Amino acid sequence: MRKVLLTIICIATVAALSSCGGKGKKADNGEVNLDKVVENIEKATFDGDKNTKEAAAFWFKKNFGINMADVTPEFEFGNEAGKYDFLGEENSSSYVTFTAKDSTLNREDYIEFVKKVYNATAKTADGGINVYGFIAKSNPAEAAAEKTLEVVLDEGKPSKIFGIEIYMGTYGWNFIKDGIYYMVDVKQLEKKVDGEDHPYAARVIIGKGLQKNLDESMKEVEKALEDPEVQKQMEKALKDLSK
Question: Is the pTM of the predicted complex or chain greater than 0.85?
Answer without folding.
Answer: no
